[in-house]
Write a structure and sequence with these properties.
The structure holds 2 protein chains of 2 kinds. By secondary structure, chain A is mainly beta. Chain A is built from no helices and 12 strands. Classes of the chains: A mainly beta, B mainly beta.
Chain lengths: ~110, ~120
Amino acid sequence: GDSVTQMEGPVTLSEEAFLTINCTYTATGYPSLFWYVQYPGEGLQLLLKATKADDKGSNKGFEATYRKETTSFHLEKGSVQVSDSAVYFCALIQGAQKLVFGQGTRLTINP
Amino acid sequence: GAGVSQSPSNKVTEKGKDVELRCDPISGHTALYWYRQSLGQGLEFLIYFQGNSAPDKSGLPSDRFSAERTGGSVSTLTIQRTQQEDSAVYLCASSLGLVGNSGTDTQYFGPGTRLTVL
């Protein structure tokens, strides 16, 4: 079945550091890919998405590019802030069906 | 507009009791999903509704779990004879329920119900 594998956490960085959280997937067909974020004490929020190969999703300074050849969707941000501290989930979906999530990566940004 | 809402936000119950969790989707969303978030298992799919029917119940962990949706809107997830391993955050999401020009159907999540079984 479809699956998503994320870089293991937790990840701790200093403010203004460069962030990469790796995500790779296994799927039949051509899934859409997502990054969701869960801030402390809050629900899951959609951060960005990409629906086909070579698409780049971006939001709040975060970017991820759908790479079909490497089955990857790595999340990047050039300069992180303390407010980016959260748990990040990579996920895939095929059509109007269930999301398949990675295990989540906890990110802590120190001032 | 209003997002997905869930109630209660927290529920503490004793082992063996039944619980009901409620989800109000975004108005106009025909698809509704239940997921479970637990420490050991991460985020797991439970059940998916399109309108009032459930074409995919594959994630329900046992026959103690059931869900229904009425009027194409509110959904209730019921857990009978709760066990300690049922302790988790239960998340509801809704979506338009169709794959449009964007090629996908984005799901929007509620804040969750934290269930603790003593």
